[in-house]
């Protein structure tokens, strides 16, 4: 069999490998945001982070929360129900909701629950107790719903200072905020995010 | 400098990260059983997990691959490495980058890119190392004393080129200020997927294409299949990043493209596997699995096949509902990097290192024992991650039980994962012992210089 030319020509081989690769590389990285503008801009108002929330985001990153928590309600009933709130289903995450996220934490693994819509679900004092010891959150939060709390695999973040926990919590309380979805008793939308 | 100095140095350094890397994996698995183990800031789960992946991927696999390539390339081209000095300098800088990034990650300085946690300036330093490596590879190919380039050389050239773009996209472009949100996520998964697919896959396949025919003393099964495998993989692999976000907040069409291309990956993989297994079949029956090298290469091939069949399958939308976001994925990632490519690298080191230093492998028998421990333990390890993942996936899907109730059910699976993972560490320790005895201990000189 006659051998193809690239087998004795380094330039042809290198260029070939590069060009063939670059077709897919360009079409899957550069083209998508050009086609779908919600990759980088939003048609709706999106929350702008305060300095404290940004600092919280940094703490979230530095402690690898993303390796146990995703931040995306997938387009699946079970995600919407499981990560909903008091029988209200969580809305599916949309790409425009993330445009202000300088660092994304969509994640791939749910050792812990999804956090995309965790903002407003708990009081900030709940988060404080939870970071200090996720398995034993003290008397105040020992309700019957927490029977399994001691099975949590979340690390203790006792080493975070009070200021850091405050910032981190402020960040968590923003999650999901770009859509009003939690409804009060009389069906009105709640916007009671604690800071 | 003596020939192969750089190769030897890279291989020895890589072994250091191998043992540290798997030990950190061991601690991670332990934390899923007893979350309060090692409860200090620098050992918090998120950081340990990141150092584990970085060390096994870059400290170990990438570095071992570079070392093996520095040996294989001149052999195939009938010449010497372009520059040993440059090779040694690459090794020194690369180790500074790897060690530095591990320390920084422990201190909480990491990027938000999976597999790309390595912070500034060490990611830039890695790029510099890669350019130095590329100069050495291209220089050696240009100075060659043969006319035609063997298939391993194609894959090595491919690795050098693709890795540059993939690594820079994942580590540097993603951090540009205007790259945010979903755009950044898309680039992240472009990087994550291709780190495995266009860095470690071509590197591992290049090594296997050399070691398998060499250790079996049988010519490669088919030239045509190598051609198909190479060109198809360079075209199709890169399209699949978005299959990490199926059902997620990214354009539906992009997910569909990624799924379709995931399926087309079967073509190059089957071409490569047929070529490898065909070479095995052409070897006399009693010579096929003599000693640890052909065994590791064979099992690596099987794991490679299984990983690459599993990939397209779990990219199907309905299957993905059950297998995504749980331990299944962890099993899949381990089968690729630990099953396929680590096995290839171990086989490669068993072949290459004795030839570099001119001494026999200390013990074939220990190598065989290591092989059986690692094979059985990894099958158990992958298997339990898949089973646990599917169980968890079904319970989540059917909305049975609270999140924590289901998490609690995972305990037996996590236990078996921990035990089988520990066995893998034992296998690695045997490997290191065998290598150390070969290097500095009681191993015999290699007399018949069929190097």
Determine the oligomeric state from the structure.
Answer: heterodimer
Major beta sheet summary of chain B: none
What is the strand content of chain B? under 5%
Number of strands of chain B: 0
Could you tell me how far the N terminus lies from the C terminus of chain A, measured between alpha carbons in angstroms? Answer: 73 Å
Question: What do these coordinates show?
Answer:
The complex is a heterodimer of chains A (195) and B (451). With 195 residues, chain A is mainly alpha-helical. Helices cover 33% and strands 0% of the residues of chain A. Chain A has two domains: 35 residues; 145 residues, Orthogonal Bundle (Cytochrome Bc1 Complex, Chain D, domain 2), CATH 1.10.760.10. Chain A is elongated and about 80 Å long. Chain A starts with 9 loop residues before the first helix and ends in a 21-residue tail after the last helix. With 451 residues, chain B is an all-alpha fold. Chain B has a single domain, classed as Cytochrome c oxidase-like, subunit I domain (Cytochrome C Oxidase, Chain A). Helices cover 75% and strands 0% of the residues of chain B. Chain B is globular. At the A-B interface, helix 1, helix 2 and helix 4 of A face helix 2, helix 4, helix 5, helix 6 and helix 7 of B.
């Amino acid at each position: 069999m006659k051998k193809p030319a690239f087998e004795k020509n380094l330039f042809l081989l290198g260029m070939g490998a590069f060009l063939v690769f670059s077709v897919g590389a360009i079409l899957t990285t550069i083209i998508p945001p050009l086609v779908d503008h919600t990759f980088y801009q939003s048609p709706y108002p999106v929350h702008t982070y305060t300095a404290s929330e940004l600092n919280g985001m940094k703490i979230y990153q530095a402690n690898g929360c993303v390796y146990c928590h995703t931040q995306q309600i997938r387009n699946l009933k079970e995600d919407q129900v499981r990560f909903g709130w008091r029988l209200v289903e969580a809305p599916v995450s949309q790409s425009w909701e993330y445009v202000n996220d300088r660092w994304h934490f969509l994640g791939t693994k749910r050792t812990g629950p999804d956090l995309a819509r965790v903002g407003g679900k708990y009081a900030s004092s709940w988060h404080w107790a939870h970071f200090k010891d996720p398995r034993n959150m003290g008397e105040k939060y020992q309700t019957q719903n927490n029977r399994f709390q001691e099975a949590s695999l979340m690390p203790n973040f006792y080493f975070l200072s009070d200021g850091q926990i405050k910032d981190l919590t402020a960040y968590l309380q923003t999650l999901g905020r770009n859509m009003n979805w939690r409804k009060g008793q009389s069906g009105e939308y709640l916007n009671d995010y604690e800071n | 400098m003596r020939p192969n100095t750089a190769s030897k140095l890279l291989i020895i350094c890589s072994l250091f990260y191998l043992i540290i890397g798997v030990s950190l994996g061991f601690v991670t698995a332990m934390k899923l059983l007893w979350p309060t183990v090692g409860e200090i800031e620098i050992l918090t789960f998120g950081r340990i997990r990141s150092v584990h992946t970085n060390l096994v991927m870059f400290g170990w696999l990438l570095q071992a691959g570079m070392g093996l390539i520095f040996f294989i390339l001149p052999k195939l081209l009938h010449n010497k490495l372009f520059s040993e000095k440059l090779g040694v300098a690459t090794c020194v800088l690369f180790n500074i980058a790897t060690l530095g990034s591990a320390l920084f990650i422990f201190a909480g300085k990491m990027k938000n890119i999976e597999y790309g946690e390595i912070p500034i300036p060490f990611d830039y330093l890695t790029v510099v190392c890669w350019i130095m490596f590329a100069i050495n590879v291209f220089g050696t190919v240009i100075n060659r004393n043969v006319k035609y380039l063997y298939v391993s050389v194609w894959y090595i050239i491919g690795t050098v080129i693709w890795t540059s773009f993939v690594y820079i996209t994942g580590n540097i472009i993603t951090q540009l200020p205007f790259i945010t949100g979903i755009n950044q996520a898309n680039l992240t998964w472009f990087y994550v997927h291709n780190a495995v697919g266009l860095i470690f896959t071509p590197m591992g396949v290049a090594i296997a294409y050399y070691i398998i025919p060499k250790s079996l003393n049988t010519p490669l099964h088919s030239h045509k299949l190598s051609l198909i495998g190479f060109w198809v993989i360079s075209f199709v692999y890169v399209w699949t990043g978005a299959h990490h976000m199926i059902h997620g907040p990214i354009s539906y069409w992009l997910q569909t493209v990624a799924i379709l291309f995931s399926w087309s990956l079967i073509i190059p993989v089957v071409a490569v596997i047929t070529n490898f297994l065909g070479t095995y079949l052409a070897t006399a029956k009693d010579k096929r699995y003599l000693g640890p090298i052909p065994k590791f290469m064979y099992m690596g091939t099987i794991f490679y096949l299984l990983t690459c069949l599993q990939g397209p399958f779990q990219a199907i939308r309905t299957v993905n509902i059950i297998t995504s976001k749980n331990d299944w994925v962890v099993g899949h990632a381990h089968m690729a990097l630990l099953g396929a490519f680590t096995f290839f690298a171990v086989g490669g080191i068993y072949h290459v290192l004795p030839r570099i230093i001119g001494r026999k492998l200390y013990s074939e028998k220990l190598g065989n024992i290591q092989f059986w421990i690692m094979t059985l333990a990894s099958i158990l390890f992958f298997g339990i991650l898949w089973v646990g993942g599917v169980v968890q996936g079904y319970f989540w899907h059917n909305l049975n039980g609270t999140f924590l109730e289901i998490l609690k059910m995972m305990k037996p699976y996590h236990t078996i994962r921990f035990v089988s993972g520990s066995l893998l560490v034992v296998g690695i320790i045997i490997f290191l012992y065998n290598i150390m005895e070969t290097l500095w201990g009681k191993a015999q000189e290699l007399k018949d210089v069929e190097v």
